[in-house]
Amino acid sequence: MVLKIFFPQCCNTADSGLMLGRWLPGHDSAVVLAVIHYPFIPGQVKKYLSQMQSETDVDLTVLGSWSMPKEGQEGMDSFLKDLSTIFPYSRWLQISREVGKRGFHCEVLHNEGTLFTDKSKGNDKSSHNGKEDAGDNGGKEKIIFIHYDQRKVMLSQLHPVQEAIQDSGKESSELRAMFQTVSHSEPLFFLDRYDDGPLKTTHWQSEGREASIIVELLKQGSVPLCMLITWLLSVWRWVCNIRILKTRPVKFISSKLSTCVQFGYRTEHLQTVASTKKATEHKEFMRKANIFVSFFVDMALGLLLISWLYRENRIGTLANTLVPVADHVAKELQELLEWLMGAPAGLKMNRALDEVLGRFFLYHIHLWISYIHLMSPFIEMILWYVGLSACLGLTFALSVLSDIVALLTFHIYCFYVYGARLYCLKIYGLSSLWRLFRGKKWNVLRQRVDSCSYDLDQLFIGTLLFTILLFLLPTTALYYLVFTLLRLVVVLFQGLIHLSIDLINSFPLFAMGLRVCRPYRLAEGVKFRVLTEEAGTPLHLLMEINPIKCSTVVQCYRTPTYSCYPKDSWGALCKKLFVGELIYPWSRKSTKTD
To answer: Compositional bias (Basic and acidic residues) at which positions (predicted)?
Structure first.
């Protein structure tokens, strides 16, 4: 049998007294939490113990005595051992430390009056003070001291967190039970040596409570600030619930604008952060902290962008550059269409359809150039006011940039839609006529291909239509290919912008900061190394916390956003491009119901 005693490092040099802690249920282990110094009154110790049990919901008990010899306390050992008759126990630990030695000497007294000592070294006597040493059982008893950093264990969270939630009704592991015992005993550590009271204790906070005036002032000022933010959000929700804003056109437009989507997400984040309800679970606390840090970093980056934009008249320079760039893009598109209206790459195109499509698209470019020149006097003023959106955060500025790119490339989107619709119509027409030649048809009700008999007139008309569509397909496919490539370039640029927005919104900055600055806060496990192994003393191990990996931090604490939902696979995307279906990068997956 191996008895494991988790002993805090801060108590290694504590004055003699009683050890407070807990026996882990289902395990042959004890966790020492604090040492109550001599002198004390046993009645006050029992009262303090019952008070701590009600505050911590931990089954605290007096584990035994701790003896640290000093001058003038020669009879302290016998006095502390006699206290076992006052406090109820199943096993009483008698731990003592000799001057000049790092190891402890431990004896375990059972409630039957049997005394066990560590026989791993074979140097202990078979009897002590006239009490039976239980030779057969005593020889099998082995004691191991595991020294741990009490502060780190109390502040750390053992991962995976889901396991602790799901298995709360089951018996937890020994290590997890030890971590939970220390973390739940936080009220026990509020008593320090500077407090006026009948009891003096030693634990990690014995030298004085950790506190900060700035932190306390922020805590006091956060309450009215959260109430103000909650009131402003309630006013904003009332404005958003106005009937005119609930109409289908307004809801459709707002769902397609990146700025409105980002504003909705930031509103949800503010509601989460400004909530006066205290986070009771670790996941909830980390989510609030990550959102708060993300919001703070977003605002800081937005203010830096504003300071850069409105310095040295960069807004005017950007406005003067925008119109020539738009003219250059329109000129390049016009030259591309003129190239397609000829014999591109030596391909033989259908002259009539080529002329119709080319003139149709050239007319759209002419309208676009007229629109740009009509708006050119107001572009600088528009950019000046749009730049102020960065005061709400860098994500808002990037969302506005994405919407501006969508508006400036709207003609390219129109070209892509026209070409995709024509190409899709011909692809589906050719596939339907191909089934006609094989005596098949598509059953709409059963969603399958069934056999069907056609007469001669139907086959003749089908042959003519199939021939026409087949010979017109190369011309339509070329236009569709060119405009699809242009559309993919725009979508790729917008995708990079949305990726940056998602990185700021969802990246767990607070959790990653804890992992870098205080890695013990997010524990994946522990490791042990031999601290001392002296003759005649139990084995002493030092427990060190293993932090979780950075990839695990991102995976566990990433804030879910709309871009975290599953997208189409590469195979489905290629299929859509081949058959001419429109690609909407902003569309989300939803469950369809009949």
So the answer is: 118-138
Cβ distance 202 to 35 under 8 Å? Answer: yes
Of 413, 429, 427, give the one whose Cα is nearest residue 582. Answer: 413
Q: At what angle do helices 456-506 and 351-375 cross, to 10 degrees?
A: 30
Residue 436 has pLDDT above 80, yes or no: yes
Helix and strand numbers (H, E) in the chain are 19, 14
Helices assigned H by DSSP within 185-257? 213-240, 248-256
3-state secondary structure 529-564: EEEECCCCCCEEEEEEEEECCHHHHHHHHCCCCHHH
Distance of CA 476 to the CA centre of its chain: 47
Q: How far apart are CA 96 and CA 64, in angstroms?
A: 11
Residue 122 per-residue DSSP state: S
Could you tell me the two tokens for 546?
A: 């293993």
Beta strands in 390-438 (DSSP E): none
DSSP class of 18:
E
**pLDDT for 162:** 52
Q: Share the mean pLDDT of the chain.
A: 79
- pLDDT reported for residue 163: 45
Q: What are phi and psi of 342, to 5 degrees?
A: -95, -125
Residue 123 has pLDDT above 60, yes or no: no
pLDDT for res 6? 92
Domain with CATH 3.40.140 in the chain: 1-113+142-163+172-206+518-549
> Which neighbouring-strand residues pair with 30?
5, 23
Which residue, among 400, 389, 404, has the nearest Cα to 259 in the 3D structure?
A: 400
- Architecture label for domain 1-113+142-163+172-206+518-549: 3-Layer(aba) Sandwich (3.40)
pLDDT higher at 37 or 220: 37
pLDDT at 105 over 50: yes
The pLDDT assigned to 371 comes to 83
Cβ neighbours of residue 150 closer than 8 Å, sequence gap 6 or more: 8, 9, 10, 33, 182, 189, 203, 204
Alpha-carbon torsion (96, 100, 102, 105), positive or negative = negative
**Is 50 exceeded by the pLDDT of residue 135?**
no
CA distances from 212 to 209, 218, 369, 416 (A): 10, 10, 62, 60
CA dihedral 474, 477, 483, 487 (to 10 degrees): -160
Which residues neighbour 447 within 8 Å (Cβ) at sequence distance 6 or greater?
none
> Taking a C-beta distance cutoff of 8 angstroms, is the pair 96, 115 a contact?
no
